[in-house]
Amino acid sequence: MPFLRVDVSSAEPVFAQIVLGVKRAVATGRLRVGDRLPSVRELARELVLNPNTVAKAYQVLEADRITTSRRGAGTFVARHRPVLKSAERRRRFRKALDEALADAVNLGIGVEEARKVFEGALRRFHFEEQT
Amino acid sequence: MSAHDPIVFDRLTHYYGRTRALDTVSLRVPEGSIFALLGRNGAGKTTALDCLLGFLRPTRGRALLLGEDAAHLPPALREKVGYVAEGQRLVPWMKVRDLVRFQRAGFRSFDEDYCLRHLRRLGLPLKRRIFNLSRGMRAQLALSLALAQRPELMVLDDPAMGLDAVVRREFLEVMIDLIQEEGRTLLFTSHILSDVERVCDHVAILDRGVLRIDAPLDMVKARVRRFHALFEGEAPPAPAIPGLVRDRRLHNELVLTVVDGDEEVERACRDLGARRVDCEGLSLEGLFIDYTAGRDLEGEA
Amino acid sequence: MRPIFWRELKELALPAVIAVLAAVPAAASMSSRADPEELIAFCAIAGALLGVVQGLLDRLRRSDRFVLHRPLAAGRLQAARTFAGLAHLLLVLFAYLAAHRIAVAYEIARQARFRDRFGVVIDMMNRSPPRNLEASQILLLAGFLLAGWAVVRACVGCARWGWIPVLVAALGLMLLAWTARFSSMTGAGLFLLGTAALFSAGGWLFLVGDRR
Fold this sequence. Notes:
The complex is a heterotrimer of chains A (131), B (301) and C (212).
Chain A: H1 14-27, E1 36-37, H2 40-47, H3 51-63, E2 67-70, E3 74-77, H4 86-107, H5 111-124
Antiparallel strand pairs in A: 1-3, 2-3
Helix pairs in contact in A: 1-3, 2-3
Chain B: E1 7-16, E2 19-29, E3 34-39, H1 45-52, E4 60-65, E5 68-69, E6 81-84, H2 96-106, H3 112-122, H4 135-148, E7 153-157, H5 165-179, E8 185-189, H6 193-199, E9 202-207, E10 210-216, H7 217-223, E11 224-230, E12 244-250, E13 253-259, H8 262-271, E14 276-281, H9 284-292
Parallel strand pairs in B: 3-8, 3-9, 6-7, 7-8
Antiparallel strand pairs in B: 1-2, 1-4, 4-5, 9-10, 11-13, 11-14, 12-13
Helix pairs in contact in B: 3-4, 4-5
Chain C: H1 2-11, H2 13-30, H3 36-62, H4 65-68, H5 74-118, H6 135-157, H7 164-179, H8 184-209
C-alpha cells in the first residue's frame, strides 16, 4: 500500500499510525469496500516493521469494523456498519470539528476562507450514501 | 511474566577488578518478544550477554538462560540458542562451505540445506575464505548459521555494527522474516536506534551498568514526554518532580524529560513563572539520549 | 569432539611447522656432541616453547565466543585442543629423532671415509664418536619434552594467574633436570606410565565424548 506512511521515530505508536492510515485511505476512497489489504507478512516487509506491530494494527481495524477477514482469503475492507448511535457519532464529529475550528481561529483564518477550505475537503473525501 | 521466560537477569552484578560493569540488573525477556538491550559503549551490554551465555561468571547474582543458571549451563542447551557474537569474526581461515560443515558437525539440529540455500540466495561465495569476506557478508553468514540451528532463542550482539545502510536494510529484512516464526524469542543489542524502533517490542536501557528502563516500547513512548518551558528571563533550576529523567537549561528555556508527569510539570513550571509550556513525544533516539546522557554533560544537577 | 580436534590441529599447525624446521638443524648439530644434561635441557626448553605458544593460543581461544558457544562441554573442548597440541609435539619429536639418526649416519660415514683416506682419525675437539640414541635415552628425552610442554602450556593457558605459573613451571623443570642425573631408567619408566595414562584418558574422551 504505497500511500501508507509510517514514522517509527514518532512518539505515536506505530500500530496506531497504521490504523489511522488505513482509516484515512478508506475515508478518501483510496481503499474501497471489498479491496484486499496486504497480508501481515507482506505489509511488514513493505514497511520494514515488526510483524507483531502490523498484526496489532489489523486486530484494531477489525475490532473497529473497518476491515473483516476471511479464513484463507485475507483481510478486506468491510462495508461500513454503524456501531454507534447517531447521537454519539455526531458528538464525536462535533468534537473533532471544534478542535479544527479552534486551530483556524488561532491561525487567524476568516469565516469565508474557512468555509471554502471546508467545502474543498468535503469533496476530497468519500462519503457513504446515507440510508 | 511467567516461569518460562527464556531470559532472566536476577540482580546480576559484575566487577572487573574495581570497575563495576553491572549493578544489580534484574529483567525478564518475555517469550516470543523482540527485545532490544540498549546502552552506550561501555554501558555493560556485552558483559550482560557474556554472563547470560555462560562465558563469564558474574560477581553476584545470576542469569538464567532457558530456565538454567547460565554459570552452569548443560552443554546440550546451547543447541536451542542461536548466537551471533560481536564483530562476527567466526573462523577466519576457513572457507564458507567448511564452516557450514563445521557447524553441522557441532549442532545436531543444524539444517545444512536450509543454510546453503539461504547463503546462495544472498549471493555469498561458498569457496571463499572468511577473512576475505566483507563485513556485511560475514554478518549475513553469522546470522544464517545461527538460524540454521532452528533455535528457540536468538541472541545477537550488535549484529549490524559496521554495516552500511543497504546491508543493514537487508539484514533487517531477514530479521523480520525470522520474527514470523512462532514463539521464537529474540534478544539483540544495537546502536542503530532507528532500526531498533522498527522491529523491537520491548526495550531495556543500560546506563553505566544500571538498568534505567525495561518496558514495552509503545508504553515507554506513551509515558515519557519532553517539556519545554519558556521563561521571561533566565530559566530557573529544574523543580523537583517525581519521574524527572533529565533536565537542561538553555538560556530562557527549561527542558524537562519526565515520566508520567504531564499535569505536574505544567503546574510546577507555571508556578516558577513559565510563560509557556510545550510538550513533545520522543523517538527512541530522544529517549535513549535523555536516559543515558548523564549529568556530567551539562554540569548541572 | 572429533571435528573440533581436526580444526584445532589445523589451527595449531603453524608453530608446529616452525618447530619442525628448527628441530632438524638442531638435531644435525647435536648429533655428535651433546652431553646428556645439555640434551635434556634442550628438550625441556623446546617443549616449553611450544607449550608457551599453544598456551597463549589457548588463552585467545577462551575469549572466542563463536567457538565456545556450542553444545560441547568446555572441558571436552579444551581436551580436544590439548590433544591436537600433543599430536604436533610428537610430530616435532619424530622429526628431531629422524634428523638425528640421519645426521649420525652421515657423520659415521664421513669419519669412515676420512679414516680410509688418511688412516687415522683426527678429532681436534675430542668429541665422542657419533652414536644413535638408545631407546631408553629417547624415552627420557621424550619425557622431558612432554613434561616441559605440558606444564608450561597448562600454566600459560590458564588465564587466571598471569605469568606466575610460568616461573613456577620453569623452576619445576630445572628441578626435574637435576633429578635426571640420577637415573635414566627411572625417568624412562615414569614417562611410559605417564604417557599411557594420558593417552588412555584422552582416548576415552575422544571416543565416548562424541554424541553422534
